[in-house]
Amino acid sequence: MFLGAGASIAAGLPSWQDLVSILASELGIAADFADGSFSSMNLLNIPQYYQNDRGRRSLITQLDAALASHGPSPIHDLIAALPTDLFYTTNFDHLLENALAAAERDRYALIVDENDARAYADHDGVEIRKLHGTLGRHESIVLTRRDFAEFRHRSPLLLGGLSTHLASHTFLFVGYSLSDPDFGLIFDDVLRNMDDMKQFHYFCAPAITDHEREDLNQRGVKAIALAEWSDGDASAGLAAFLTSLTTATSDLTHVKRFFSGLRRGATVPIIVSSRTHEHEQYVFIPECDLHVANEVERALQLLGCTARRMADRRAIGDSDMLAGHDLVLVCSPFANQVTHAVFADPALTEHGPRVSFREDGGSRLLLIDATRDEFRGDNPVRADASRHYQERALVARYRNPWNPERHVFVFAGLHALGTHAVGHFLSDTSNFAKLPDMDTPLEAILTVGYSDHDPYDYRYEIEAVWVREHGAVG
Q1: How far apart are the C-alpha atoms of 458 and 427, rounded to whole Å?
Q2: Which strand ranges, in their side-by-side order, compose the sheet holding 267-272?
Q3: Among 267, 254, 256, 396, residue whose Cα is nearest residue 339
C-alpha cells in the first residue's frame, strides 16, 4: 500500500491543497486557479514562503494544528484489514498506525528516517515507511521546497528501499492526485528509472481521462477509476473498492465474520469427542474432530488467539471453564457430550439453538425448529453402489448457554463424514465470507454429496443459512 493525503480526508483531515490554502491565506497569497487551488509548483513554494516569513516552528505548529485530534476513518480500517505487511505513506498523521492498532496489528516497525531504515534492515513483519516524516518527530517533516530538495540527498536508504520494493512488489496507490508533487517525485526518482524491468502497480484515481490512463499505463501503473465504483461518487467509490478488495483477499476479515467477539490474546477451548461412537463404524470420530480442530486453530491464530484442545468428558464437568470462555464444539450431540448439553436444553438461554438433532430409522436428521425444515443425512456405513448419498453438517454461532457474554461455535456433522467435510470447509477461509457478518446467533447447513466408492471424494455446499434477529428466521 502507498497512501497519500487523500486517504486521510475521510477522517476529517485537510488535503494538501487545503493545508497550503491555510498557509497562503495567512501570507495573503491568492490561489492560482478560480476553484481556489494551487499549482504543483506552489504546493511546495508556499510552505517554503511561510517558513521563510514566520520560521520553522510556526510552520510545524500550523501542521500540528491541522492534523491533530482525528481518529481513523472506515477507509483506514479497511486498509488495516488488507493482507499486506508493507505500507508506504507520505502522510504525517498517525491514522494508519491507529487503525493497525485497532485491528490488533500493532507489532509493526515504524520507519521514518535513515536511522530507522538501518535499525529495521532485516525486519520480518509489518512495516510503515513514512517518507515525509511524522507528527511528533518534527525534524523528519518534509513539506517545503527545500525539504524536498534535501530529501533526495539525505535519505538514500529510504529511497533505495522504495526502489527495491517497487521493483519486487505490486503496489496499490491510494489518496493521491496525479498533480501531487510527492507522487511526481516517486515517478521521477524511482519508477522512471526502472525502464523495462518495472513492476506493474495500481493507482486509485477519483476520475481519469483516457490520456491520463494511457500515460500511467506507459509508466507501469494501471488506473482504477473510483467514480465507476459508486455512480460517480469517488469517495464512496474508494470505500466500495476497498471493501471488495478486502472481502476478496483478507483471511483475517473472513475469519472475523464468523468468530464474532473474540479478542486478541484470548484462550479458546476446542472441545472434541473423546471416544469412538459405537454406531460410527465407518471412520473414527476423533480423527475427523482433529481435522476440524487443526483448521479452527489456524483461524484462531489469525485472530491472535490461542487454541486449547480438550476432551469432552473432561470439559463437561468443568463449569468454570465452560462459563469463562468462548467455546468451539466439534462433533454432534451423538458423540460430543458438551455439544449434547447445549442442544439437549436450549432453554438454558434465549439465544440457544433452534436446531434439533434426531435419529430416524438408521438416518440422522437436522431439524430447524422454527420452520420445520428437515435435512437428512445418510449413514455412510449403509451406503451401496445403487445411488449417490447426502450427509449434512452444521456450522453455527450461539451465545454461550453458561455465560451469554460469551459465544459457542459449533462444527457438527450428523456423521463423522460430515464433520470431516466441515474441516475442508474451514480450510478455505473465504468460505466465512458466505456467512452473515452479524453478531447474532446463526446456523448454516452444509450439504455433502458422496458415493460409496470413495466417501472422501465428496462435494459440499452451503444449502441454507438462518440468522436469528428479533426472533425472526431469514
Answers
A1: 15
A2: 306-311, 267-272, 327-330, 403-413, 389-400, 442-450, 459-469, 472-473
A3: 396
Task: Report whether pLDDT(278) > 60.
Answer: no
472 pLDDT more than 50: no
- Where do the structural domains in the chain lie, given as residue ranges? 2-249, 253-473
In 59-180, which ranges are E strands?
86-89, 108-111, 126-130, 172-174
Given a contact cutoff of 8 angstroms between Cβ atoms, the answer to whether 96 and 89 are in contact is yes
Confidence of residue 253 (pLDDT cuts 50, 70, 90): confident
Residue 469 is predicted with a pLDDT of: 47
1 — pLDDT class (breaks 50, 70, 90): very high
Query: Of 326 and 217, which is predicted with more confidence?
Result: 326
State how far the Cα of 391 lies from the Cα of 380, in Å rounded to an integer: 8
Looking at the chain, the whole-number percentage of residues with pLDDT higher than 70 is: 87
Residue 209 is placed in which grid cell? 481521462
- The residues with which 129 forms a beta bridge, in sequence order, are 88, 111
pLDDT averaged over the chain? 85
Burial 12-36 (b: 16+ CB within 10 A, else e): ebebbbebbbebbeeeebebeeeee
User: What's the pLDDT at 15?
Assistant: 86
* Rounded Cα gap, residues 63 and 53, in angstroms: 16
3-state helix, strand, coil split of the chain in percent (to 5) is: 45, 25, 35
Reading the block at residue 183, the C-alpha cell is 507522487
The CA distance from 352 to 204, in Å, is: 46
Residue 361 CB partners (closer than 8 Å, separation 6+): none
Residue 134 is classified by DSSP as B
